[in-house]
Amino acid sequence: MKRLNLIKLAMAVAAAVLALHTNAAETSVGPEYRVGGFVLGCQAYTFHRFTAFEAIEKTAAAGGKAIEFYPGQSLSPEDKKSKVDANATDETIEKLKVKAKQHGLLIVNFGVVGIPKDEAGARKVFEFAKKLGVRAITIEPSAEQIDLIEKLIREYNIAAGIHCHPKRSNKPDYKLWDPNYVFSLVKDRDPRFGVCADVGHWTRSSVDAVAGLRIFEGRVISVHLKDIRESGNPDAGDLPLGLGVTNVRGILRELRRQKFDGNISIEYERDWENTVPDIAQCVGYVRGFADAGEKP
Fold first, then answer.
1. Residue spans of the chain under pLDDT 50
2. Minimal CA–CA distance to 158: which of 128, 135, 127?
């Protein structure tokens, strides 16, 4: 009997450890980092003409509560030599984390980052992400890299979302714009391997963004939220949320239905020098969505 009880205890402990490992990347974020129920902030590329410190300041000024960094941005006006990338020193990473905390922002994601084909190089990206404290990275891998990436997702307990850019007639071999193709890459993989749903780029590729999200139910790692002027045009410009053709309300409703708990990064690719007013309008749209009875 004692032996049986010990076996049961060992199995229970093993199950608890496995659950902890599996769900750590999905740990719920507190309300202080949410807008309208969503973990909402900016993709720092919105402020790529500025430094990472300035991106933090501008995201906070616009009302965002989270930030997703991208590789290559200079650290600060005083230190433009230090970059936010996998080669960053521990000192640079700590400065970035302190600055974000000072402005009430949660660092949630890193990308779009290229994953080297060699394991040592790929591991370096995951090591950086772990030190930065992000839940996920955003990537555009080749099919040949999927096995290695899944291995590192499991080892580091960091989720990975496959991002897309628009479909272009002069790039027929580029398939990541197609959610069905991306789903084929991840559908049998670790549940932390999914999509970074760039709903603006989907719309530029004539993809119904709500339908795209439904394909990935349970595997939506993060969202790049944008509204654009025209569907089916890869060069269509951005507009504040609610003013373009992207079904933003439908997207937010679908994310709420899925109980999505990843990050939403507003990515605004227009008026690069003075984006804060329009970003604030976008944040206000999401807040208004919740205030109007649409709260997740």
1. 1-24, 296
2. 135
